[in-house]
Specification:
single chain, alpha/beta, Rossmann fold, OB fold (Dihydrolipoamide Acetyltransferase, E2P), 2 domains, five-stranded parallel beta sheet, five-stranded antiparallel beta sheet, 7 helices, 15 strands, elongated
């Protein structure tokens, strides 16, 4: 079980004591510090990172909401208050939960459990292996694996696949940014080829399914270094 460092922030000593008692009963939660003001925890976080704030909203000088806005990389936060009035504003700051006092152990455990849910759902998005291009006013899916080569034609690019050639209003530079660099190679000012679709290379020409594509002398050496040459 991962141990998470927690800071209790409340200007009321009795409220801090009650939270301290509950926090010590939560598995995997380590009470790092108690602070009586937002300014105090702000200074603490400059030197020692925390995983979670159990944070009161209404405090003198600086509220809990103002504290979260002032931190460039705030920890996860559960706002704890006697009023429900700030809930909309709080969730706009992406807090884990908003608890109206009195706090129970079950409610606190439920709120802290959202840290695990968030970690599970916030993983990296899978890399896409396709794009959608606007062809004849229709968004058409083109799989990267189907692309043989691309030719620049003025303000358009022509994307060649085994079954069709798509004319798309787009620059070659913009399209390159959408394609995985390791799979495609800019072999000429006006052409980009799928490396794994190359059938042969002769002099300054590339052949892909009987299509002859020019190969610039400037980049020929780089292409030869990228293919499985024996």
């Amino acid at each position: 079980m991962r141990v998470r460092k927690c800071v209790i922030v409340d200007d009321n000593p009795m409220a801090r004591a009650a939270l301290r008692n509950l926090a010590r009963q939560v598995p995997g939660l380590e009470l790092m510090q108690e602070c009586a003001s937002a300014a105090e925890v702000f200074q603490l976080l400059q030197n020692e990172p925390a995983d979670l704030l159990l944070l009161d909203v209404e405090m003198p000088e600086m509220s809990g909401l103002e504290l979260l806005r002032s931190l460039s990389h705030p920890p996860e936060a559960i706002l704890i208050t006697s009023k429900p009035d700030y809930a909309v504003e709080a969730f706009g700051l992406k807090v884990l939960d908003y608890i109206v006092k009195p706090v129970t152990l079950a409610r606190l455990i439920q709120a802290i459990g959202r840290m695990d849910e968030k970690a599970t759902t916030a993983g990296p998005l899978p890399e896409k292996d396709y794009l959608f291009a606007r062809v004849d006013n229709t968004l058409t899916r083109i799989d990267f694996d189907d692309i043989l080569f691309v030719e620049a034609m003025g303000d358009y690019v022509r994307i060649a696949t085994p079954g069709r050639k798509y004319m798309v209003l787009l620059t070659m530079k913009a399209l390159e940014k959408k394609l995985p660099a390791g799979r495609f190679f800019r072999c000429h000012r006006s052409f980009l080829v799928a490396q794994d679709k190359i059938d042969s290379i002769a002099d300054n020409m590339i052949v892909i399914r009987n299509e002859v594509i020019p190969l610039s002398e400037k980049v020929k050496k780089e292409l030869l270094s990228r293919i499985n040459l024996i």
